[in-house]
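Lab manual, section 2.4: Encoding a predicted structure.

Procedure: take the sequence of the chain (320 residues), apply the prediction step described in section 2.3, and record the output as C-alpha cells. A sample record is shown.
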Amino acid sequence: MITERSAYGSAAPPSDGAAVSPGSGGDATGRDIPAIIKAYVSLTKPRIVELLLVTTVPAMMLAAGGWPSLWLVAVVLVGGSLAAGAASALNCYIDRDIDQLMRRTKRRPLPAHTVTPRAALVFGLVLAAVAVTVMAVFTNWLATALTLAAIVYYDVIYTMWLKRTTSQNTFWGGICGAAPVLIGWAAVTGSLAPAAWGLFAVVFFWQMPHFYALAIKYKDDYARAGIPMLPVVASVRRVNLEIVIFSWLTVASSVAVWPLGMTPIYGITAVVVGALFVLEAHRLHGRARRGEPLRPMRLFHWSTTYLTILFVAVALDALI
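Recorded output:
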C-alpha cells in the first residue's frame, strides 16, 4: 500500500469526468491547440514508438529478402505507431495513480492535469481500435492478431498485474516490447520463420539490461510508488549480475541469427557491437562490486545505440 502523500497535496484529484478549469493546466477549451496536441502526443510516448519502429522495418526487409512493398511498410508503420501509442496512452491512464508519485513521470499529462483521465482513456481506446482496423484491412490475420495481443498484454497483463506484483515484471513485459519484430515479419509473409523468432529473442533479452539500468537510476522513484522493480527489492550485485547474464543472452541470440541466411556483414556487426555491449555491462557490474558510483545511464544509452546498429545491419543484410 502506498502511504505517501500524493502530488495532489491535500486536495483530492479531479474525478475521471471532471473538467479542468482554464488556466489550471487542464484539458480545457481555453488552452491553445498546440499545447493540447502536444499533451496528447506525449501520452503516446513517442520515443518508445521510435525504438519499436527501428526494429520493425529491418525485420520486414529481412522477411521480404529486400525492400517489401512500400505500401505495406507504410501500413505497418502507421498501424504499429497507432498500436504502440494506444498501449502507451492506456498505460498512462492505468498508471496515473503512481505516475503522480514519481519525479520521472509526474510531469506527464495526467499527473500534470493537462489531460483528464476520461479523455486519455477514450484517446487510447480509439487509437487501439484504429490500429487494429488498419492492420486487419491491409495486412493479414496473423499480423492483426499479434498487434491486438501486444496491446492487451502490455496494458492488462503487464501494466495492471505484473508491474505492480512481481520483480520479474520487466522480464515478462519484454514479450510485448519484442512483438513488433514478429508483427512486421508476419505482415510480409503471413507466417513466422526461425529468423523472426531469433530477432524476437534479441529484443526480448535486450530489454532487461536496458530497463534495469533505467530502474537503477530511478530506484527511489519506483520505491516511492510501491513498484517492485528488481533494483528496489534486490541487492545491487544481484541486479547487475542479471544485467550481465541478459546482455550475454542478447548477444548470443544475435549471433544465433547469423546462420539463418545472414551474410558476414550482419555477423561481424553482431559480434563487434555485441562485444561492446557486454563490455559495458561488465563495467557496470565491476563498479557495483567495487562499491563505486554505478553510472547506469551509460549502459542505458549504449544499449539503445547497440540495438539501432544491429538492426541497421539487419536491413543492410536484407538488401544484399
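Check your result against the sample. The chain has 13 helices and no strands.
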